[in-house]
Amino acid sequence: MSEPRVVHLVPALFGPRGVVGGAERYAYELARAMAPQVSTKLVTFGGERGSEWDGSLAIQILGKVRRVRGQSNNPISSELIGALRGASVVHCHQQHVLASSVAAAYCRLTGRKVFVSDLGGGGWDVSAYVSTDRWYHGHLHISEYSRRVFGHERNQRAHVILGGVDTEKFSPLGSYNGTGGVLYVGRILPHKGINYLIEAMPDDMQLTIIGRSDDERFLGDLEKLAAEKQIQFNHDADDADIVQAYRKALCIVLPSVYETMYGERTAVPELLGQTLLEGMACGIPGLCTEVASMPEVVEHDVAGLVVPPNDAPALNAALLQLQHDKQRTAEMGAAARELVLNKFTWTRVVRRCLEIYGAEPETS
Fold first, then answer.
1. From CA 212, how far away is CA 319, in angstroms rounded?
2. Which of 56, 141, 282, 335 is the most buried (most CB within 10 A)?
3. Are the C-beta atoms of residues 201 and 182 closer than 8 Å to each other?
4. pLDDT tens digits, residue range 207-261?
5. pTM score over 0.70
6. 331: number of Cβ within 10 Å
């Protein structure tokens, strides 16, 4: 196969003009890392049509956008086909949205290769009525858990490409510090299990919660739980602020759960655990629950600690262990950084993608 011309298709642009979310960041960072190696364009949807460059990455924002059945995360545009015409490979990010199904059908009809990474979420789509799995030449999963939960364990077209971190931006600053207390970074939603972390916090330990609130009821309940404890909420931190917080933290915690404090069940709470990777890249250990993909990211008692979900006492015991054995905690932080460098870099993800793009498609 000659050098591919790749289009990454994602429902929303990452950032203040779009959505500050893990799926959007994943597609953007992957495309940005791929662009220096092969011709790469990121195609997305927005309020105003536009084209721009981010280094060697071309970004095209489509106009004439309609929201399928009024769903904000399910945009479609009459300009989509035109944006795909120059591509030899299209990589869709989100399977169960109409734009991805249209892109897949177009690619199949015109002899282009088409792949998909299901990053969670979705909306109304033809896949509700007929499986679109075989419309794609490959399913590129970001974790073994993702491949398993979407029923692709025995699917020869399903590959695990993992996720990456910008290890220059997310990096330690000198030796392990640990004076900044415990850190949570992410959306403030019930399935993130932040309430159990707050309950677990010792009175003499500080917790910083960085993230936007998408559930006012949950935020209010967290604030009540946090009363009388050393807990700070920061809803407006940018990447530079977050990197500084990582570098000083005792550990990065992601206490996600399958069942929230309200009794609501979440089948897929985490497909990867991006903030764990970011913190670990900064040389601090990860602390997570034994939920979904996260044990793939945090190697227990090597790069951090893994505890049962919905278990504040177990979180408390892990926090006290990290607090009281600073030498061992620093060793786990160093191991966490090494794990990210060896397994979770965008360079490695790009290499995996390009190898898969270049393989001969199976007959269908």
1. 24
2. 282
3. yes
4. 999 998 989 999 999 999 999 999 999 999 998 999 999 999 999 999 999 999 9
5. yes
6. 15
- Nearest alpha carbon to residue 55 among 28, 86, 88: 28
Compute, in degrees rounded to 10, the torsion defined by CA atoms 183, 186, 187, 192.
Answer: -70
Tokens 């009540």 label which residue? 224
**DSSP for 105-118?**
HHHHHHT-EEEEE-
- Going by C-beta distance under 8 Å and a sequence separation of 6 or more, which residues neighbour residue 224? none
For residue 282, the 8-state DSSP code is T
Q: Which two tokens stand for residue 196?
A: 């159990």
User: Tell me: the pLDDT tens digits for 153-209?
Assistant: 999 999 999 999 999 999 999 999 999 999 999 999 999 999 999 999 999 999 999
Please give the Cα distance from 364 to 352 (Å, whole number).
23
3-state SS, residue 220: helix
Identify the H or E element spanning 315: helix 312-324
Tokens 């972390």 found at: 197
The span from the CA of 78 to the CA of 95, in Å, is 19
Is residue 139 within 8 Å of 133, Cβ to Cβ? Answer: yes
Helix, strand, coil percentages in the chain from 3-state DSSP, rounded to 5: 35, 25, 40
